[in-house]
């Protein structure tokens, strides 16, 4: 066991249970199973209690014992503790009693949930002595790595599919990161990055640093529990790309329950995808525990992973928690974006539209009973995916700067609505 490993004990293979030292590595040498961080929960129990948590700054680091850094975090200590909004108007439109929106559209600094995983991965990368960081990204991860690396003085290479939304490309370039556009889809970007990571001594946040990186997602679940007054919601709807966030939301609920921070209860974790890239939801609906890779074709580019690394485990979590999955068309994604904006004043990116759209389907079909409590994980900001909704959210009426023209317009409107 590493000395001064904080509250971490080791990396452990999810398949065979073999343990590995806490280095920059992510697969088991024996069965290629993914490695996961294991913690010393007995020690954590002694310091991580409600009053202590509540006395700490309102960031994701108030749960630092359950996040995989050995010392104090050095990157992204402002990240997290985003608002949990009681969404009564959207609840009425969706036909459910109690609805909350976990609003990571305003996460700091790069406006998506990815700041959670990146602050952990970069803090750990620094502890391990890296000076260059990198990632394979569908967009938001690139933005977050670029922003957080800039603030930390780290060199960053971000690899993205070349056809990404303008907003996401500009949001990486502006921080001075090296942005490499790959002529291919995410799965090809990822395969290339696995090769590069093996050859160069860089910390790829979602390749060789993945065990640490993925743990950052738990903070979203910790915050949901604390912000609900220390309870686990009956239903949580989570968008799925690789499926990692969904598995870590369950892990966060399990850890808080185990540590006595939330009462034992039954809960369901549901997964949301876009129909144009729905390998996990297709498998779940067919009752399979494995998925078939697909070629993505959807406006929800942040979720467009055709070979999801954690798809198998995401299916397992839904099965274990009695959760369901579903997927929505591009038009339903846009409707979801509009409903969230019109009802709650929150402008989410396409992944948010996916989550709202799937929640609607789950409620209509009774898989989420109308009388239950639901949290929607809304993970990215709409200003980054304007391309997806331009021309589809109403239109501007143009007039000359004259009161007469304005009143003519109003009168016309009255006639139309009458
Ligand atoms: C990355 C991402 C997700 C989920 O990613 P996982 O790979 O499933 O953890 C969800 N929403 C947005 C906006 C993202 O960028
Ligand atoms: Zn193994």
Distance between the termini: 75 Å
Proportion of helical residues? 25-40%
What ligands does this structure carry? pyridoxal-5'-phosphate, zinc ion
Largest sheet: 6 strands, mixed
Instruction: Specify the CATH architecture of one domain.
Output: 3-Layer(aba) Sandwich
Chain-averaged pLDDT: 96
Short précis:
With 418 residues, the chain is of the alpha/beta class. It is 39% helix and 15% strand. The protein has a domain at 84-110 and 215-388: Rossmann fold (3-Layer(aba) Sandwich), CATH 3.40.50.1100.
What does this 3D model show about the protein?
The protein is α/β, with parallel strands linked by helices and 418 residues long. The protein has a domain at 84-110 and 215-388: 3-Layer(aba) Sandwich (Rossmann fold), CATH 3.40.50. 39% of the residues lie in helices and 15% in strands. It has 15 helices and 13 strands. It has a six-stranded mixed beta sheet with strand order 4-5-13-10-11-12, sandwiched between helices. A four-stranded parallel beta sheet has the order 8-7-6-9. The chain has a three-stranded antiparallel beta sheet with strand order 2-1-3. Strand 1 (8-13) and strand 2 (19-20) form a beta hairpin. The chain is globular and about 75 Å long. The chain binds pyridoxal-5'-phosphate and zinc ion. Zinc ion binds at residues 13, 15-16, 18, 28, 30-31, 33.
